[in-house]
Description:
- With 150 residues, the protein is mainly alpha-helical.
- The protein has 6 helices and no strands.
- The protein has helices spanning 12-28, 52-64, 78-88, 91-108, 119-124, 132-144.
Amino acid sequence: MQPTQPQYTITPDDTKRQETIAAAWRAYHGELVKPLERMPDQPDDNVMSNRCQPIVDRGVDFLFGKSLEISLDENAPAEAQKYLDDLWGRQEKRIPLLQKLAMSGAIAGNAYLRIMPRRSYYDTAYCGRSVNSICANRAARLRDRDALLY
């Protein structure tokens, strides 16, 4: 039986951080506070220009706008590169994920990505070859860990 995850109590600092992040998202979407009060029977003198979104979008494009390849050293075994490619998935899915992560980090201030392998993946994907004992040992070690961070 797996132990249950401890309950976390939201503190006032957490609430303040959530409000700050929500305000940053509103600014990104151009929902800005009008600095001038509108006078009766006068046009609205507030000229609102969203300067937040272009900055965030430019940074995301700089980081992940082009193709991104993740590769090992030339001397690494081909099986290790295939393992890494299978873990990260197809580029059509990987790049949008990384772009969303970068956008969230730019707006909220921090971004975290937890890579968790499927437990059944290690039992079947690489464990039927001549390196069966090495693969079984590795699968057992990975099953005991929560995240794969290489």
